[in-house]
Amino acid sequence: MIDHNLSKPDIRQANDCPPLPANASAFDRLVYWLGIGLGSGLPRRAPGTWGTVGALIVAIPLLSLGFVPFLMITILACLLGNAICGRTSELMGGHDNPHIVWDEWAGMWLTLLPLSYMGIANGSFWQNFTQIPTILAIIIAFILFRFFDIIKPPPIGWADKKVAGGLGIMLDDIIAGVMAAAVWVIIYTFIFSFSF
């Protein structure tokens, strides 16, 4: 395992998204667009945050499908993420470019799994979606995921620096998503236990 920190652009500065090579195949074009979160990772500043916003926008209708379909989509996103992020990284010519946000999509969706499971966003999702508790639950999930993804406490920081390839790009966000989901459950349980 190699420290890839030096090959990453400085995310504290505005960076242009590396363009797709002109000779890219149709399949590579599809992978590239998935890698940059259907364009949500294109902004020059804070592409990870914008990518997470994109993930949340896509997740809202997916949550209405219920827990099992949302779980399956999230697992598929995590499994395919290794290949998507790895190939997008190759197309961009560097490891873990901040404009690659498929990992943020998978991590954000992992964070939302407890929300889906606990029934906050199911069956009558569109009725619940406009309710303050549901909106707060989604906002808290977003903030928690961004916190863990940016701060990178152990073992997230280790995975970010030491694991190579597409797996390295995905792993820190998967861990961040799991940690954010666990904290979300604790917060939700605490609030629920004092709401009666």
From TrEMBL:
Cofactor(s) essential for the protein: Mg(2+)
Keywords, alphabetical: Cell inner membrane, Cell membrane, Hydrolase, Lipid degradation, Lipid metabolism, Magnesium, Membrane, Metal-binding, Phospholipid degradation, Phospholipid metabolism, Transmembrane, Transmembrane helix
GO cellular component: plasma membrane
Top-level division of the source organism's lineage: Bacteria
The keyword Metal-binding is assigned to this record: yes
GO MF assignments: metal ion binding; phosphatidylglycerophosphatase activity
CDD domains reported in the protein's UniProt record: PgpA (cd06971)
EC number, UniProt record: 3.1.3.27
Membrane topology: Multi-pass membrane protein
Keyword Metal-binding: yes
Location(s) in or outside the cell: Cell inner membrane
Spans through the membrane: 53-84, 105-126, 132-151, 163-191
Domain YutG/PgpA residue range list: 35-187
InterPro entries in the cross-refs: PgpA (IPR026037), PgpA-like_sf (IPR036681), YutG/PgpA (IPR007686)
Pfam families: PgpA
Gene Ontology BP terms: phosphatidylglycerol biosynthetic process; phospholipid catabolic process
Catalytic activity entry: a 1,2-diacyl-sn-glycero-3-phospho-(1'-sn-glycero-3'-phosphate) + H2O = a 1,2-diacyl-sn-glycero-3-phospho-(1'-sn-glycerol) + phosphate
Annotated pathway: Phospholipid metabolism; phosphatidylglycerol biosynthesis; phosphatidylglycerol from CDP-diacylglycerol: step 2/2
Function: Lipid phosphatase which dephosphorylates phosphatidylglycerophosphate (PGP) to phosphatidylglycerol (PG).
Name this polypeptide is given: Phosphatidylglycerophosphatase A
Species lineage: Bacteria, Pseudomonadati, Pseudomonadota, Gammaproteobacteria, Moraxellales
